């Protein structure tokens, strides 16, 4: 059961995939024993961050009820998502939980005008009985993201800017008056000059629309700027989570430290993203299959126990960290200064 007062309650969810043929092949645990929750009465931006292949996208599919967990439960407003079977129930769920995807140009067909999507959303979710009645609702959603119906009316995606297109995508998500927006890499396909425009928009939505947002990203800079809390993902696990200032200003887990050290310093010229500095290739596959801590092969502070058993979640101050450095195995109760 989910606790009263939780908007979203993720309880020890695991997602396993079978790779290869049925007789041979192997098992990939894409999400491993993940738990976190969002409060109903306290809208916030909770970020899931990590490099490519950390399990972020699989977890986002789980939260959208596009995928069922192998083990564990996901509750939204107290309802177990695995009990949603009727089309009407799923429609009601999607009315309250809306996605914003990575590439705004994949959200809209180049052959269809963008305002058609907005009117369809209003009509499909029963927000208005007809197109004429939906005009005010659509314009209100566009006004919330700094646009207007007049600006986008009768325009195709190529006739507006990338930043405007992503704003229209967010407006579409707002039409049904959702309680939660799941934004999966929403600024990675947007020009650097427009990224702050989009992330500022998410902050405004939390403050003015009382919408909670799960922000999925590999970009620690934007995560630091807009997040209230952050969970750092590594090979299906959340290895460190807590208030964003605590985690990114004073990281405890060696993997979090690596990510932060890999962020390139600001420079006048556009530079390669930090994610490419730690490209994994075959390392990714090896780490998913490793017994014990998935980071043991790259960790400068690895111990024998790390290669034998999954580390426990340790509560330290306002954060949770999955690491043997903070257990009785080292005698440490707090991180090295």
Tell me the layout of helices and strands.
Elements: E1 6-19, E2 26-39, E3 45-49, H1 56-63, E4 71-76, E5 79-80, H2 87-96, E6 97-100, H3 104-107, H4 114-124, H5 131-144, H6 149-152, H7 162-174, E7 180-184, H8 192-208, E8 212-217, H9 220-226, E9 229-234, E10 237-243, H10 244-249, H11 254-261, H12 274-277, H13 282-289, E11 313-316, E12 319-322
Helix pairs in contact: 4-5, 4-7, 5-7, 7-8
Rounded to the nearest angstrom, the distance between the terminal CA atoms is 40 Å
Total number of strands: 12
Instruction: Please give the radius of gyration in angstroms.
Output: 21 Å
Order of helices and strands: EEEHEEHEHHHHHEHEHEEHHHHEE
β-strand percent reads: 15-25%
Average of per-residue pLDDT values: 86
Give me the side-by-side strand order of the main sheet: 6-7-8-3-9-10-12-11
Structural class: alpha/beta
Largest sheet: 8 strands, mixed
- How many discrete structural domains? 1
SS field, number of helical segments? 13
CATH topology: Rossmann fold
Stretches with pLDDT under 50, minimum 5 residues: 266-282, 331-337
CATH class: Alpha Beta
Helix residue percentage: 25-40%
């Amino acid at each position: 059961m989910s606790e009263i007062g939780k908007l979203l309650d993720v309880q020890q969810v695991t997602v396993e995939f079978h790779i290869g043929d049925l007789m041979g092949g192997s098992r990939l645990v894409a999400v491993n024993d993940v738990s976190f929750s969002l409060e109903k009465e306290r809208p916030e931006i909770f970020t899931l961050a990590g490099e490519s292949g950390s399990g972020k996208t699989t977890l986002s599919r789980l939260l959208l009820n596009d995928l069922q967990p192998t083990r564990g439960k996901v509750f939204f407003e107290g309802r177990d998502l695995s009990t949603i079977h009727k089309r009407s129930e799923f429609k009601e769920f999607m009315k309250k939980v809306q996605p914003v995807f990575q590439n705004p140009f994949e959200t809209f067909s180049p052959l269809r005008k963008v305002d058609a999507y907005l009117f369809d959303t209003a009509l499909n979710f029963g927000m208005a009985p007809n197109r004429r009645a939906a005009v005010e609702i659509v314009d209100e959603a566009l006004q919330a993201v700094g646009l207007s119906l007049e600006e986008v009316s009768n325009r195709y995606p190529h006739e507006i800017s990338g930043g405007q297109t992503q704003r229209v995508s967010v407006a579409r998500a707002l039409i049904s008056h959702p309680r939660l927006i799941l934004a999966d890499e929403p600024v990675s396909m947007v020009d650097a000059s427009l990224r702050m425009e989009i992330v500022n928009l998410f902050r405004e939505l939390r403050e003015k629309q009382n919408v909670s947002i799960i922000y999925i990203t590999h970009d620690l800079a934007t995560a630091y700027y807009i997040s209230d809390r952050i969970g750092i993902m590594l090979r299906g696990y959340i290895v460190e989570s807590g208030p964003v200032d605590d985690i990114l200003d004073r990281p405890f887990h060696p993997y979090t430290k690596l990510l932060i050290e890999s962020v390139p310093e600001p420079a006048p010229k556009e530079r390669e993203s930090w994610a490419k500095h730690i490209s994994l290739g075959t390392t990714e596959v090896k780490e998913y299959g490793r017994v014990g801590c998935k980071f043991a092969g790259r960790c400068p502070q690895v111990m024998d126990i790390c290669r034998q058993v999954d580390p426990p979640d340790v509560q330290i101050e306002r954060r949770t960290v999955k690491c043997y450095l903070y257990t009785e195995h080292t005698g440490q109760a707090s991180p090295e200064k």
